[in-house]
Every structure is written in structure tokens, then in C-alpha cells.
Amino acid sequence: MPERSRAKDGRPTLREMAIAAMEDAVRGVIEDHRRRGQPLAVWDGRKVVHISAEQAAAEWKEGTQCGTKEPS
Predict the structure, then answer these.
(1) What's the pLDDT score for residue 72?
(2) Which of 13, 16, 28, 34 could lock onto 53 through a cystine, CB 3.0 to 4.6 A?
(3) Separation between Cα atoms, residue 44 and residue 48, nearest integer Å
(4) What is the DSSP letter of 10?
């Protein structure tokens, strides 16, 4: 199904607003962990691993969105 970028009236779609909210939340969690010096627990294939906030931020910026690997 093709992805629509905007509702007919030019406002963001519900889907776009939900994605933006999730992205803001992820950025906030990464920043909070960075400030506290705590690792983040992410899903890596079939197990949970701990990564630094810096690594999580780098993966998020690259678009790999840490922890999204498919199980092998």
C-alpha cells in the first residue's frame, strides 16, 4: 500500500503523528541514559544486549534504529 505523506487538508496523518511521537520518545530515552551514564537494553536478534547511549545514538542517527535486527 502506498504511503500517504499528508492528510487531504495538509495536516499530518495520525500515522505520521504516531511515528513522530515514538521518535521523540526514543531520542529522550537515549539522552536520559547518556546523562545518567547508563547503558540501554536492546533486542539483538534473539537476545537482549546492553549498548552505550553513544552507540544507540549513532545507530539511531544512521537509521539502523538499534535493536531492530530480524531473528536469524
Answers:
(1) 42
(2) 34
(3) 6
(4) S
C-alpha cell at 60: 539511531
Whole-prediction pTM:
0.69
Q: What is the pLDDT along the chain (72 residues), one digit of tens a residue?
A: 345 566 678 889 999 999 999 999 999 999 999 999 999 999 888 999 999 999 999 988 887 655 454 444
- Please check whether residue 29 is in contact with residue 57, taking contact to mean a CB–CB distance below 8 angstroms: no
The domain locations on the chain are: 14-62
Cell 531473528 belongs to which residue?
A: 71
For residue 41, what is the enclosing H or E element?
Answer: strand 40-44
Closest CA to 57 of 27, 22, 37: 27
Alpha-carbon 38 to chain mean position: 17
User: What whole-number distance in Å separates Cα of residue 67 and Cα of residue 55?
Assistant: 11
